[in-house]
C-alpha cells in the first residue's frame, strides 16, 4: 500500500501532523498501537510553564528567550521556531473547536489549572470546565466554594484539595468547604469506581438529577462547585451544561489520577477530527521499518506482515518510554526500536535518574530521545540524516516535558512542523 505520508503513532503529535497533511489533500495513514499518553495526561496543553525554576506567565516571550539561549540548541522549539509554535496552537484550537471541544486560552498568556492536590500549575489551553481564568474571575463576586468528592471514590480527596486552595492568595477571602456526595446505586462496589465509571453515571439524566439534588440540599450556600473530573467523555458538553443548569451554580472540574477524562476528551476530539480526512489504522503496531541509503522506504505491521506500507515520507511519533518509542535494556542501554536511530542518552545507567524522586532538577532520562537535525529529520547511529523520516513529540530529545511544563506544546508544534516541512517538499 502506498501513501504520501505514513505516521507511526496516534498521539497528539501524530494526529496533529496527520490532520494538517490530510487537510492539505495528502494521502495519509496514521498507525496507532492503542492507548496513547493523552489518556494519562491532564487534557490541557502546556506550552511552556517554567523557564528554569520560575513560573512563566508570557509563554511566547519565554519561548523566544529559550530559543535565544546557548543551552537550548537541541530543544524542539529551537528547531520549529516561534511562528510554527503559534500556528500549531491556533490550528489545534480551531480543529478541536470544530469537533465540539472548546479549549480556553487567556489571550497569549498562561493561566493556572488546579492539580489533584489543590496546587496551581501554569498551562496555556484548558477545557471549558477545567479551572481557568474565566472561572477564576468569578472569585471576585462570590463568597463560598465547595470542593466535593464521591463516597467510595479513592482517586480524589476533597479535603486535601480544599486545604491547599485555601492557602492561595486569590482564595484568601473565600470560604472553601469540602464534602462528599453519594453516587446513584449502580449495583456495583463503589470502591472499585474509576473516573470513567463515574462519567458513565453522569451521562444518564436521571442520575444527574439525583446528584444535582444532593448539591442543592447539602451545599446550597456554595456559589461554585468543584468536582473531580467525571462529567462525561462523549457527551461532555451536554452533560456539563445540564449539570450547571440543574444546580444553578458554576461547576468546575479538578483533574484526577489516570485514566484522565480530559485527556480522553482531547484524544477523542483530535482523533475524530482526523478520521474525517485521513486513514486511521487502530489497534495495530509497526513490527519493523527500514531505511536504505538515507531514505525510509517501508514499514510492516503486526496484523498484516505480508503487506508493505510504503510512502514518500514517514513521521515517527511513537512517544517516549510509555508509548514504546524508546526502550531500555541492560545490554544495549536506551534505544529506538524501529529504525535503530541515534539516541541522545547517557550510557551510564546511574546517570539516568536523580537520587531523589522529587528532585527539583528532575530526572535526566526525561530529556532523552531521538537525535534529529534542525528540520526534525532523524539521524542514524552513524550520524547520517534520513531525509524523509521526521520525528515529532515525546520521542524527541532535548527537552524535559515535566520540568518545563511543555509536553502538549512540543507535541503539537513538532507534529505541525513536520507536516509543514513535508508539504514544502
Describe this structure as you would to a colleague.
Helices cover 30% and strands 23% of the residues. With 425 residues, it is an alpha/beta fold. The strands form 7 sheets. Strands 1, 2, 13, 14, 15, 16, 21 and 22 form an 8-stranded mixed β-sheet that branches. Helix 1 (12-23) runs parallel beside helix 10. The model has no long low-confidence stretch (mean pLDDT 92).
Rg on CA atoms, Å: 22 Å
Shape: globular
Largest sheet: 8 strands, mixed
* Whole-number mean pLDDT: 92
For this entry, what is the oligomeric state of its chains?
single chain
Distance between the termini: 21 Å
The SS-based structural class is alpha/beta
Strand content: 15-25%
How many runs of DSSP E, i.e. beta strands?
22
By DSSP (H or I, 4+ residues per run), the number of helices equals 12
Low-confidence stretches: none
Give the proportion of residues in helices: 25-40%
Keywords:
single chain; globular; 425 residues; four-stranded parallel beta sheet; eight-stranded mixed beta sheet; alpha/beta
Describe how the helices and strands are arranged:
Layout: E1 2-8, H1 12-23, E2 28-31, E3 50-51, E4 54-55, H2 59-68, H3 76-80, H4 82-98, E5 103-104, E6 111-114, E7 120-123, E8 126-127, H5 133-136, E9 144-150, H6 158-166, E10 175-181, H7 195-202, H8 205-218, E11 224-228, H9 236-247, E12 250-254, H10 261-275, E13 279-281, E14 286-292, E15 295-301, E16 309-316, E17 327-329, E18 333-335, E19 343-344, E20 369-370, E21 377-379, E22 385-391, H11 401-404, H12 407-424
Parallel strand pairs: 1-2, 1-16, 2-13, 9-10, 9-11, 11-12, 16-22
Antiparallel strand pairs: 3-4, 5-8, 6-7, 14-15, 15-16, 17-18, 19-20, 21-22
Helix pairs in contact: 1-10, 1-12, 4-10, 4-12, 8-9
Amino acid at each position: 500500500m502506498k501513501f504520501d505520508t505514513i505516521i507511526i503513532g496516534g498521539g497528539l503529535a501524530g494526529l496533529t501532523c496527520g490532520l494538517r497533511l490530510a487537510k492539505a489533500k495528502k494521502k495519509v495513514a496514521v498507525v496507532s498501537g492503542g492507548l496513547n499518553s493523552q489518556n494519562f495526561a491532564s487534557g490541557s496543553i502546556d506550552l511552556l510553564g517554567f523557564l528554569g525554576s520560575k513560573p512563566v506567565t508570557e509563554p511566547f516571550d519565554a519561548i523566544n528567550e529559550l530559543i535565544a539561549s546557548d543551552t537550548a540548541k537541541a530543544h524542539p522549539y529551537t528547531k520549529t521556531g516561534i511562528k510554527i509554535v503559534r500556528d500549531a496552537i491556533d490550528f489545534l484550537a480551531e480543529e478541536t473547536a470544530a469537533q465540539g471541544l472548546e479549549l480556553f486560552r487567556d489571550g497569549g498568556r498562561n493561566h493556572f489549572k488546579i492539580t489533584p492536590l489543590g496546587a496551581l500549575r501554569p498551562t496555556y489551553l484548558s477545557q471549558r470546565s477545567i479551572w481557568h481564568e474565566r472561572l477564576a474571575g468569578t472569585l471576585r463576586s462570590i463568597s463560598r466554594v465547595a470542593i466535593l468528592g464521591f463516597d467510595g471514590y479513592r482517586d480524589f480527596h476533597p479535603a486535601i484539595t480544599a486545604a491547599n486552595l485555601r492557602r492561595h492568595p486569590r482564595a484568601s477571602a473565600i470560604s472553601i468547604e469540602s464534602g462528599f456526595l453519594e453516587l446513584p446505586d449502580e449495583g456495583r462496589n463503589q470502591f472499585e469506581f474509576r473516573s470513567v465509571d463515574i462519567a458513565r453515571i453522569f451521562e444518564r439524566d436521571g442520575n444527574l438529577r439525583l446528584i444535582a439534588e444532593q448539591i442543592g440540599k447539602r451545599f446550597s450556600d456554595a456559589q461554585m462547585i468543584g468536582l473531580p473530573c467525571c462529567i462525561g467523555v462523549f457527551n461532555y458538553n451536554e452533560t456539563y451544561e445540564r449539570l450547571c443548569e440543574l444546580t444553578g451554580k458554576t461547576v468546575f472540574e479538578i483533574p484526577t489520577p489516570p485514566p484522565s477524562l480530559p485527556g480522553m476528551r482531547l484524544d477523542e476530539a483530535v482523533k475524530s477530527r482526523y478520521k474525517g480526512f485521513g486513514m486511521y489504522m487502530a489497534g495495530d503496531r509497526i513490527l519493523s521499518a527500514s531505511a536504505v541509503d538515507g531514505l525510509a522506504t517501508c514499514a510492516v505491521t503486526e496484523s498484516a506482515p505480508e503487506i508493505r506500507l510504503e510512502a514518500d515520507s514517514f513521521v515517527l511519533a511513537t512517544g517516549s518510554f510509555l508509548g514504546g518509542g524508546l526502550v531500555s535494556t541492560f545490554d544495549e542501554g536506551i534505544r529506538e526500536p524501529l529504525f535503530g536511530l541515534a539516541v541522545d542518552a547517557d550510557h551510564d545507567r546511574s546517570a539516568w535518574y536523580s537520587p531523589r524522586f522529587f528532585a527539583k532538577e528532575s530526572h535526566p532520562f526525561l530529556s532523552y530521545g531521538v537525535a534529529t537535525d534542525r528540520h526534525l529529520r532523524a539521524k542514524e547511529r552513524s550520524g547520517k540524516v534520513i531525509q524523509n523520516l521526521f520525528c515529532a513529540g515525546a520521542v524527541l530529545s532535548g527537552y524535559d516535558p515535566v520540568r518545563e511544563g511543555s509536553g502538549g506544546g512540543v507535541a503539537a508544534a513538532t507534529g505541525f512542523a513536520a507536516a509543514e516541512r513535508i508539504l514544502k517538499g
